[in-house]
Amino acid sequence: MIEITELQKLYDDTHAVKNISVSIPAGVVCGLVGPNGAGKTTTLRCLAGLIRPTSGRISVLGLCPLANAVELKRNVAYVPDDPPLFDDLSVGQHLDFVAQLYGVGDHRRRAYGLLERFELMPKYDAYVNSLSRGMRQKLAIACAYLIAPPVLLLDEPLTGLDPPGIRALLDSISDYARQGNTVIISSHLLAMISDVCDQVWMMHKGSVRYHGATAGLLKTFPQAASLEQAFFAAMTVVG
Amino acid sequence: MNTGTTWKQSCSTLWQFELARWSFRWQRFWDRIHSPRQVSTTLLAIGFVSLYVLAGFTVLSKRDVVDPQRLQLWLSGGMVLYGIYHAIKYVWSNHTRDEIAAATTTPAMLLWIGGGPLPRQMVVLHEVARVLPATMVKSMLLCVVLWRDVPNPIALWVGVMLALLTLECLRRIISHVVDACGGRERNVLRIFSVLVTLAISGQIVLSTIHETPKGSDPAEYMAVGIGEVAMFTASDAMQWFAFPLQPAAHLAVSEPLWLTTFIIPATWSIVHCLLQLLLSFMVIAALAYVLTQLDQWALDRRHEDEVRRLVDLQSGRVHPAKRPLTNQEHQQSSLPTAFSLTFVASILNGPIGALMSRQWHCIRRYRINVLISFAIPLGVSLSPLLTNTAGLADNQIKQWIFVVGGIALSSLLLAPPALQIDFRRDLKRMSLLRSFPVSASKMCVGMLMVPVAITVLFQWWTLAAAAWIACPNLWQLAWLAIAFPALALLTFAIENALFLTFPHQIHAQGIEMVIRAKVTFLWKGLVLALCPLVLFFWTMLCHSVLPESIAFLVAFAGSLIGCWIVSIGAFAILVFCWHRFDV
Fold first, then answer.
1. What's the rounded mean pLDDT across residues B200-212?
2. Contact: B9, A89; criterion CB under 8 Å
């Protein structure tokens, strides 16, 4: 499903991503974790086709972000941290716009279902500039689900969400992956995502420190009782 | 999905999207129509447009008619001159744009349009097309001034609009080419831009001096100078550079293109207009195609540069990120340059000092742009002193009036856009600013202190240089030295108060911004026109009512007190606006 080979990204003088190679199969939820500045967002933006890698190859469903840019974007949804929305569109108009942009036919019923799931239905006619931070996050996630892409990239999606919102999102991620889709979720809330992640992808200073099954990471650090403890143990080893 | 379907669907999506946004804006305007703020803005806009149209059909319609051919030359050549100005400004700007930001303007556009399944060319062209409504309004405003000079006002409107669209394409092409340049190439372009600037300004200055009769007053030099700029834009060289603009410029004045008169009789005006319309569309289409190709070329070049830097980095030829400075190094590096204002800020040692210190860092970052922005008005303000005044006492007074006018004009019109480091820079950070434990008045003082101080520095520096050459009356000099800072404070206070009342993005475009710019220009023009009148009547009043022994003193002190009361009043309005600002 996702093949990354020797990916590197350079910003001015900052070597943000260093030679990473990762393979993620379909139907998997992969937790992308690492300290601030590890290169998580850069990697996700490369996968979404938003920025061009300096070197290396990316293949998502056999599509290359350079050669098949439009087709790749049709199959990948990326939700950034604090997603920017169009303040002059209402919640409903936003969903209509995204559906039209991605060519989603008869989207209304699915849109209503998503709004119900994320408790945004009462805000259907509200303009985006009147929504709270968490509601904006939920709307962006609902837009991503509306497209129903085979690959979903979520960058810090839990930030700003209330506890019921976090639960609804994590449940939806599990359901979505069970349908054969791949989800990469970047987060610092390790305790929250550990339940839903089949794989952990740990990055540190632009390099991959661990990638594999969540159970495998816990086996590597047997003294760790949780993903969070394993994360700290791994970071300590890295130094 | 084939390419044709993708383009068709993309066009339809973007059209619906823009319609939804327009409908929202109209709805918002209608919903807020009863609020005092909306009423005042609407009345101001309607008032301005009415006055403008009235002036266009009364005062301006009585002026001498300009030859359409000259108008056509100015239109095409003037736009090339603007293109050169944009290129020079862009070459010297320090911003680096990533590949998506190069084609989109806002973060939301970047994510949803840039990241959506749209062909990259469509994203680039969508940004160009978004200027269309504002271009239509700008063209209409220009038609109000020029309608008398041309045979067909409709052709004028369409021609100016197409010329402006062509210019927009050219402007974006220039930006993409500069974006594609590496560090060394950009330095070469900067040197080249300096040479071009010196050559153009040198030519205009020398020809102005040559063409103006010796002993003329500064007004004549200015009139001849403007004429020389017009001559320069109409020159053959500029017209060759303006070849993409020629069909639209000819259409604007309903004049046939020289080449087409060989196949179509010159008297068939309508046929010529239709042909020029077609040619203008073809030019815009060709430029749009070139723009999309250049965009891809720019992306590839930037990528090549990035790969080269990565290879250098990996081979150890360059170090990755710069090592942070140690405390000692930081003190050593910042002491000499930051001495003056950081020292003052440390004396203030409080929230105002902290705000000033932040602005000072900002000024240091953009020091070249700020220096250039003030060096040009400094030169222009002092230029009247270079005119020959031997034996003509009147001319010396005129020289001095022109210098003073130049300083006032620069303070009102050029300083605010050059020093956008106040509230206008912080629209996205308003919540943060509001969260600071700082009173409204201290916040406003902190925000205005550095831009006002720099403007005052410019005013005093220019005054001192002018006084050294022209040796004016010392009382006059003292009055100006005290009154000009009041003007600087007034300008920045009103500019920021307007911004806080009607906030907008710093690089926003659109019809609102066009009207806003005109209304802002109107109040500044009124200040420039009314101030001398009020001062004149005040002085006359003092001299006619008071005994001669104290009349001068009262006029001197009273006028200064009056100036500062107005400025402090403007500052109080700013404090009120910040106090009432709704995040």
1. 89
2. no
| A187 contacts A160 by C-beta, under 8 angstroms | no
Per-residue pLDDT averaged across A213-229, rounded?
81
Using only C-alpha atoms, chain B has a radius of gyration, in whole angstroms, of: 27
Cβ atoms of B63 and B148 closer than 8 Å: yes
Q: How far apart are CA B307 and CA A9, in angstroms?
A: 9
Considering only residues B326 and B226, tell me which one the structure prediction assigns the higher pLDDT. Answer: B226
Is the Cβ–Cβ distance between A54 and B310 less than 8 Å? Answer: yes
The residue of chain B with its CA nearest to that of A8 is: B310
**Cα–Cα distance list, B1 to A74, A99, A152, B4, B326 (Å):** 11, 16, 21, 8, 57
Q: What does the pLDDT look like over A137-181, one tens digit per residue? A: 999 999 999 999 999 999 999 888 888 889 989 999 999 999 999
Query: What is the b/e burial string over B146-158, where b = at least 16 CB atoms within 10 angstroms of the residue's CB?
Result: bbbbbebeebbbb
Estimate the share of chain A in helix, then strand, then coil, as percent rounded to the nearest 5: 40, 25, 35
Q: What is the pLDDT of residues B523-546, one digit of tens each?
A: 888 888 888 899 889 989 988 888
For chain A, the distance separating the N- and C-terminal CA atoms, rounded to the nearest angstrom, is 32
Mutate which: A61, A97, A129, A133, vs B, most B CBs within 10 A: A97
- Residue B184, classified by CB atoms within 10 Å of its CB into exposed (0-12), middle (13-18) or buried (19+), is exposed
Give contacts of A89 with chain B, Cβ < 8 Å. 20-21, 24
Given a contact cutoff of 8 angstroms between Cβ atoms, the answer to whether B342 and B356 are in contact is no
Nearest to B583 by CA among B417, B421, B420, B436: B436
- The kind and range of the H/E element at A211 are strand A207-213
- The chain B residue lying nearest A11, using CA atoms, is B306
CA dist., res. A186 & res. B112, Å (int): 20
pLDDT (0 to 100) of residue A106: 83
Q: Which two tokens stand for residue B314?
A: 């990996």
DSSP reduced 3-state for A202: strand
Lowest mean pLDDT among A180-184, B232-236, B522-526: B522-526
Separation CA A20–CA A238 (nearest Å) = 16
Look up the ipTM and state it: 0.83
B548 and chain A in contact, CB less than 8 A? no
How far apart are alpha carbons A54 and B177 in whole angstroms?
A: 20
Cβ neighbours of B46 (radius 10 Å): 11
Return d(Cα B581, Cα B503) in angstroms, integer: 10
Mean pLDDT of chain B: 83
pTM: 0.78
Is pLDDT of B460 > 70?
Answer: yes
Query: What does the DSSP assignment read for A79-104?
Result: E-SS----TTSBHHHHHHHHHHHTT-
- What are the Cα distances from residue B333, in Å, to B38, B48, B297, B369? 49, 51, 40, 21
Please give the Cα distance from A32 to A35 (Å, whole number): 10
